[in-house]
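User: quick one, fold this
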Amino acid sequence: MNTLERLTIYVGESDHWHGKPVYLALVEAARHRGIAGATVTAGVAGFGKHQHLHTTRILELSSDLPMVVTIIDTVEAIACFLPTVQQMVAGGIVIQDTVQVVHHAPIIPQV
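Assistant:
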């Protein structure tokens, strides 16, 4: 088992960084830095510090759904990337924790 660090970044769908959605800007910055992996998950409902409910329900359609960016890499890589994350995330929360990788399937080349 390998020990890695995970950043979990909660932002709103409408949050932007230099003209693009912050969740996309984070993934692009992570890729540019050579981070091992990043995934964006769109929430179907959520609320933050202002207690305003955001949902995908038709009658309550929101343009600011919760977005979760998960980034995983070594302690050193995450430490180097964290200042970039802190600069880009103006309205959200960033959580860092240590995780144990219990299975990592090998990449199988496409034929």
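User: anything notable?
Assistant: The mean pLDDT is 87.
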